[in-house]
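Please, structure for the following, as tokens.
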Amino acid sequence: MLEEVGIPRLVVGGLGSGTGKTSITLGLTAALRARGRTVQTFKVGADFIDSAYLAHASRRSCRNLDSWLLGPDGVRRSLAHGAIGADCVIVEGAMGVLDGHGMTAETPESNPREFPGSTLEVARLISAPVVLVVDAWSMGETAAAAALGIKELDSAGSVIGVILNNVPNDYRRRVIEDAIWSLARMPVLGALPHMQNVRIPELRTGLLPLLQNPHVDEAITELGAAMARHCDLDLLERLMEGARPVPLAPRHRAAATLSSDAPVRIGVAFDDAFCFYYSENLELLEDAGAEIVTFSPLEDAALPRDLGLIYLGGGIAEAFVPRLARNLSFLESFRRAHAHGVPVYAEGCGLQYSARSLRTSDGTTHQMAGLIPIDITLEAGTLHTGYRDLSIATASMLGPVGTRLRGHEFHFSRVLSGADCLDAAYTMHDCDGEPLGCEGWTDPLMLASFIHLHFGQEQELAGRLVAAARDSIDQRTHATLAGRGSRFAAPV
């Protein structure tokens, strides 16, 4: 079993959101791939949209490194598992490099300052150097003060240099470069000029989703070429190679993988409307004994046959809601499968699809699957987002009452009616411990919630879902055998 990981790696941090971390990470990934490197990308935090861009640039699934969701051991396991088959690792940070969930209490000067949940914390957990991205468009010598402040607070010495982004001219580049070296004693490892034609559009909630950006390939190619021209790639690679080995905690394989049972089929909705999944969730299900079978609620006429469980993730853009509602044959197939005993795990927009109706922002009400008798409206101006600390309130396919989980919420939805239709799935607090009431709905064949879970946080979580899938197959098989010869026997 792998005991440590020593792959070359680098974290791309920033002074804040909008400084160009994604552009620099995409460009660096493209430039290294052009050198023949196999690059594995990661994203700090619970982000899906940036991760899709990074996966597209690297041609490998991007993974999330989230110290709050996964804990230190989970972060290191995710690094090791994702790095298999890669030559190097590039990690895009989140927000500002120190931004997280607030500083811990003061520690002795001999210990590094702690910034829980931050990019810097993740960099320390995986022993990776950090380059700081600074947007130089409207800044001069002040950039040196910002770099010096980060350096002073980074008492572990993780931040090893600066990359300037959006530089308006050569004069500004020289001014900032000289100031950062003179005042902060940090090297400027690259300086990308202002590139009018390759700006990746942003929405109020983040980047324009990948599938809605027809020019993404041209942008990534241009960013890669710019990184090769304006950054010292040789030096960056040497710095990446200097990352210290990371010791690993053992990763336990679920008991289902040790048995002789054949894999159980778990259906996963995956298309333009359902595309927000942590890639490790699917891999952990496979490790636990699942065969992943994808389907499209947008395009398919019916579910695949012989499923043990249906997994609906997130990603529905409002534009897809009418198409989902018009695919009546698939909706009926979904209802029929659930009625015949196939359990459903739905999170985020999967909950919306499982509801009775969904009202879009233009006031139109669309009939959904109706597995849960609730009505939901989409409200563009009201964003519900943040980390969530969960306790299972009703025993379910995820575990017994009292099981503690951590998740992330990000949606514009509000329940209009039917909130008390089923038992609550969770009691919920925010990451600071403030109570937020109950969340989600559950019954013996359904767990639906607005909260996204990363299965890597609890090594038995995927195994519980696979066990629920296997139990459902067994129960339907027994019911069919008991009812053989009857014209009322339910199909499997």
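Confidence is low (pLDDT under 50) at residues 255-259, 485-492. The first helix runs from residue 21 to 34.
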